[in-house]
Structure formats: structure tokens, C-alpha cells
Amino acid sequence: MTRRVACVLSICAALAAGADEDVSVQAHDLTTFVPSRVQYDSVGGLGEAYYYYEGRLWARWETDFPQAERNFAKRLTELTAIVAAAAPARRRLTDEDLGDSPLIFMSDVGYMQLTSAEKAGLRAYLENGGFLWVDDFWGDAEWASFERAMRDVLPERRWQPLPIEHPIFHTVFEITEMPQIPARDFAWIGDTAEPPWIHRYPQGSLEVPQIRAYLDDEGRPMAIATHNTDIADGWEREAYGEWYFENFSTKSYRLGINVVVYALTH
Fold this sequence. Notes:
There is one protein chain. The chain is an alpha/beta fold. The protein has a single domain (3-265), classed as Domain of unknown function DUF4159 (Rossmann fold). The chain has 7 helices and 11 strands. The protein has helices at residues 3-17, 67-79, 116-127, 139-153, 184-187, 231-236, 242-265, and strands at 36-38, 41-42, 50-53, 56-59, 89-91, 103-107, 112-113, 131-137, 160-161, 210-215, 221-227. The strands form 4 sheets. Strands 6-8-11-10-9 form a 5-stranded mixed beta sheet. The chain is globular and about 45 Å long.
């Protein structure tokens, strides 16, 4: 039995039986769900591969990291029987221990550039039962960039939109529509779609949020993309005012918990 499979089985057992609230989190404890963010490289310069915000430069891969994962881990532990590590992990797609993470998370991939070794690593991870969640990229050009990379990773598969009837929307919480979560700074404008000028050209439509999925041979999502929405900002910014929390963070947590529980039990 691989270490990744042992991790999934242990977490699923906790889901079924309940988890001890006093379980201590160890660095390599495979009975604990560790939110795992993928570090990748991007093309371009300022405003493309990286951007300036809140007094420093951010690489695209680290958008909302690590606070989003810290907040999500806390809520996941509070609202389910899953024991989630307080400190998230950072992973490269070429890391030998990538398979220890049953779910990996990528953000802001509109300018992402993967090497052939990274594509091979991601393909092996997915074919061995891993689950990829990609979030916070908007419009046509950013989707096209991600889709080009996935054609090399999974050349025999094509993405499909998940309808609201799919079990991923009903695993823990009943979700009746796909939420569009704007970054906190844009939420105050009054439109949940983010402004086109901050996204890659040609932007096309940013209005309709959607989960798109790559399915395995049994029809199970092996990779999902939450497109035209910023789910992780709803986690990161939960403490930035009651209005944002009630209108956006609660929706982000519902979807996030559904996705993780679905991924760990299917």
C-alpha cells in the first residue's frame, strides 16, 4: 500500500468514525489532512508572472497563501470529522512526496508555465488517484493557458462543466448555484465579476462562474477548476468584515468543504 493510499484511508476512517479533537499534528502524520499548495513558475513580468500588493511582490502561485489554507483548515476541522493540519504544505509537482497529499491546490494559473517534468509529475499524480483543484483564474485567455498545459498532462481527456446536480454540490452542504466570489478589494464595487483589466487579455466573459472537471474512466472528477471565481479569497478574508464574511466567505467554505470531502471519499 502506498503512503498516499494510506493517507486517504486514514482520513476516510476519521470521516466515518469521528476524530479526536486533541489529536496533535505531526509534520509527516499521514492521518492528518494537510492543505497542500502547488508552487509553479509563470511567464511575464510585473502584472503577469507577479504583482505588487499590500507592500510586497507576490508570485502568482502564492495568491492567498498561506492564510487561506490556515483559515480553511480551521473551519474544515470545526465542521467535519477531518483533522486538518494548521500549517499548510508547499509542493512542487516534481516532489517525490507529492503523492502523500490526496488533494493539491493551485491558484491564479493564468500565466502558469509548467516544465515537461512538472507535467509528467502531475500526470502520474492524477493517474495514481490524486485530486487537483485549481482556483482563481478568470476569462478566456487565462482558461486557454491552463487548458494548453492540461492537454500535455492529460492528452486523452477534455474538460466538462459539472452541473449543479453533481454530487460535489451536495456532499455535505446543499449548494443550489455555483458561487462567484470576488477578491475582497473588488467585492465593494457591487459586481461579483472581477474587472477585466486585472486579468489576461483577451478576457472574454468573466460573468459566469463554473466548476469544470477532467474525469477519469469511471466518470470521477480527477481535476477540477473553479473558473471565474476566487473561492480561496473567501477563506483568506473571512475576518475582513461581517458583510464580506456573510456574503462570500460562508459560500466559499461550503463549496470548499464539499470538494474536500468528495475528493477524500471518491
